[in-house]
User: Fold this.
Amino acid sequence: MILTYLADIHTHSIASGHGTSCTISDMAKEAGRKGMKLLGITDHGPGTLASGTSSYFRGLPFCPRKRFGVEVLYGVELNILDIQGHVDLSDELLSNLDYAIISMHGQNYRSGTVKENTLAYQNAMKYPAVKVLGHCDNPAFPVDYDALAYTASRENVIFEINEVSLTPGGYRGDTRANNAEILRCCLKYQLPIVLSSDSHGKEHVGDFTYAAEFVHQTGFPESLILNNQIPRLKVFLQTR
Assistant:
């Protein structure tokens, strides 16, 4: 039996562009309707076309922390820009957000060798706000998962298992082998993971249908999945 999970910390509102018209309140209302307890809003950084500006991220810390009975965290999905691990939001703005996800997107980062891509992630992990490696299962950006997991365990960063990546017919292609390797390495280093919907809009908030099925089929231990361990998840995100 696959559990129902209570937290989703990788979601996007209208501020990320991509055609969605859902506000943060729309997202929280849907999360509350589904019985969720914790929602993380992680709109794309300014490097993404039509996404949130610096002013948007500056204002997020002043937004309500509780909406429709759901606790809301305010973060960002940063774009990795180069092998040096530079990202598209300033240290000042990052320090005032709850956490950051780091991801590679083709419009901002030109994929290199396995060694180069791995180094880019490792360098980006050194920002204190960075807590989650976003969809690094993408075959377009090959990496050394063992090296990433080792660094993540040292830097207090975790992997996500991304619902969009594992949805059949998804635009990232077949990511199952990469996700299996992520889970193997996380188990090796006893590194927790988080299931992420990566929902753009309210429709898929808290939807881990394929991600949860995949993780449980591999026998990955529930004790290392943080979505239902909300106090532990919040402490983890707040540790800099």
